[in-house]
Amino acid sequence: MTGDAPGSTLRHAIFCERHSCTFTGLDVEQHGTTRRRGIELRGADYRLADSEFETTDTPIVLNGASDVTVENCSAAPTADAYSLRISSDSGAVQLSANDFPAGVRDDR
Questions:
Q1: What is the Cα–Cα distance from 106 to 30, expressed in whole angstroms?
Q2: Using alpha carbons only, what angle is made at residue 20 by residues 56 and 25, rounded to the nearest 5 degrees?
Q3: What is the spatial distance between Cα 25 and Cα 64, in angstroms, rounded to a whole number?
Q4: Which residues are paired to 37 by β-bridges?
Q5: Would the pTM count as exceeding 0.85?
């Protein structure tokens, strides 16, 4: 998934509020002018695996999500942002074998 639309209101390429979803083998490049993000998860019971994200803002956002597994993923923002952000109202998150060069912001 590639695009360069602006992200003036923090637009995500993928936005999911459903429960029990698996995302595998994603390749997301969002190089819009500002604040483009890759994926935001807001439900429960997710698996995100074997995926690559390159965005202008935070590539992966867990916003109130719980029971999330992120494994073998690469997430690189091109601007001053984190690779992964976990909001304060999120639950359990398991991270394994990821490449997050800009680090993880965990507000829990």
A1: 23
A2: 45
A3: 23
A4: 12
A5: yes
